[in-house]
Amino acid sequence: MSNHHQDDLSPDSLRKILLQTLASIFIVILLVFASAFFFRNELIVFSEWFVKFGGYVGLFFGMVLSDSLPAFVPPDAFLMMSIAGGMHPFLTILVMGFGSLVGGSIAYSIGRYLIPRFSLGRKIVLRYEDKLLPYLRKYGFWAVVLAAVTPIPYSWMAYTVGSFKMKYTEFLLGSLFRFFRMGVYYFAMVLGWVSGV
Question: What angle in degrees, to the nearest 10, is found between the helix axes of 154-163 and 168-175?
Answer without folding.
Answer: 170
